[in-house]
Amino acid sequence: MDKSESANKKMTKKPINVSWGGRFHEPINDFVKRFSASLSFDKRLYNEDILGSIAHAQMLEHVGILTAGETEKIIDGLEHIKKDIVNNKFNWLLDLEDVHMNIEAALVQKIGSIGKKLHTGRSRNDQVATDLRLWLRNQIDSINKLLFNLQRGIIELASYHSGTIMPGFTHLQIAQPVTLGHHLLAWNEMLERDYGRLMGCRERLNQCPLGAAALAGTTFSIDRKFTASKLGFARPTRNSLDSVSDRDFAIEFCSVASILMSHLSRMAEELILWTSAQFDFVALPDRFCTGSSIMPQKKNPDVPELVRGKSGRITGNLIALLTIMKSQPLAYNKDNQEDKEPLFDSVDTLSDCLRAFADLIPNIEVKKKNMLEAVAKGFPTATDLADYLVNKNVPFREAHEIVGETVAFAIEQGLDLPQLSLLQMKQFCNKIEIDVYDILTVEGSVESRNHFGGTSPAVVAEAANRAMSLITSR
Ligand code: ARG
């Protein structure tokens, strides 16, 4: 083939059957088609894609670009397509790359050339940014419900166990007695902050990119506020370049999800410790555990272990998104197509973990006796004795020293602090009187921490009530 022949060949235009095929002279390579397609994962955006298209068509009618008749046909066509998809009758075509082009092509096939008018004043770039925001907004609403269920379960359990005494730990060493209710409400505090972060993320993502088109906006006299309000967005996004390139909302969600998962992972870790023979504080319902294929006695806390393990992939998804975004020049780049799988995975994994814990945690069996026995082992009221001396006018540092010596003596004698006689105690400080025994018991210890935020049963019961009204007032 000589030069002019090959030039001629290039000039002969072959029809290429994709919506962007106009300027192309040869069909896309099969491997590249597969490599660049997002259909396998973005089809789950179909509902949002159709909602966005309906709102866009209504806006085009509102500003006089489409007639009422055309709009009706488009909306009708889109609703039929939605039914087909829901009923598994939709013919997804990989050749059409993604969810957006599949639905648009199906619309043209259904209603003819009027369908080709839908893409007026729009691009897949603002379309996908809109779809993803709509989708994530919905998902956050569902996640909030799951989170609510989990928090309710934890708070109810905390209220029930407002007076159940267990060891409080620092460095995983028994430190001071606390109530189980207090410990559970600490979990709830973590989750309450997660709720706040989810809501913050929702608020920031709730803006409509439609109208930004490919990157620079459009020559048509569109009404962006109209589209935004049809889709329940608070307002249109402010800058067309930013609208198509911003994926902060996805990153922010993945970051919120990572923090939330790190909380679930910490809770999981404690449940795993507490179910071990060494602690034996709680038992998990059988339906959340599995056995061992070789050791018949085993009952493994699989669900908490998986929750702890899955927190890894959620953090991984955050890192993936940050890395995808970090060097992209404005505005849209195909890199952004890579935002979906990590985001979808974070939403799915987080939802599953919340669902599992919302069912598991309220159903744990609490072994009160074991908790109480464990608490006695670590001289948990030593600080109470020091505080007692301070109340008798001994400076705290001196009191600390005196109690240290008393504890060393008790260890030597193989006794707990409340088992020492008054005489034995008096040899370390003669200000110790018979009333010391009131504060040496674990009950007295928790009882006396009755300030706001403390562990006393009355304060915990009150805190549980407050936490419950907070979540129910959402
Ligand atoms: N599937 C694409 C994505 O997820 C849609 C946007 C494509 N835009 C483009 N200019 N190629 O990002």
Question: Brief overview, please?
Answer:
The chain has 474 residues and is mainly α.
Molecular structure report:
There is one protein chain. The strands form three sheets. Strands 1-2 form a two-stranded antiparallel sheet. A two-stranded parallel sheet has the order 3-4. It has a two-stranded antiparallel ribbon with strand order 5-6. The N and C termini lie far apart (73 Å). It is built from 20 helices and six strands. The longest helix is centred in the first third of the chain and has 37 residues, at 124-160. The protein has helices at 3-11, 30-36, 39-42, 46-62, 68-86, 99-111, 124-160, 180-205, 224-230, 240-245, 248-275, 302-325, 340-360, 368-376, 382-391, 396-413, 422-426, 436-440, 442-448, 457-472; strands spanning 165-170, 173-179, 207-208, 235-236, 282-283, 365-366. It has 474 residues and is mainly α. β1 and β2 (173-179) form a beta hairpin. It has three domains: 15-117, Orthogonal Bundle (Fumarase C, Chain B, domain 1), CATH 1.10.275; 124-218 and 233-369, Fumarase C, Chain A, domain 2 (Up-down Bundle); 376-472, Fumarase/aspartase (C-terminal domain) (Ribonucleotide Reductase Protein R1, domain 1, Orthogonal Bundle). Bound molecules: arginine (ARG).
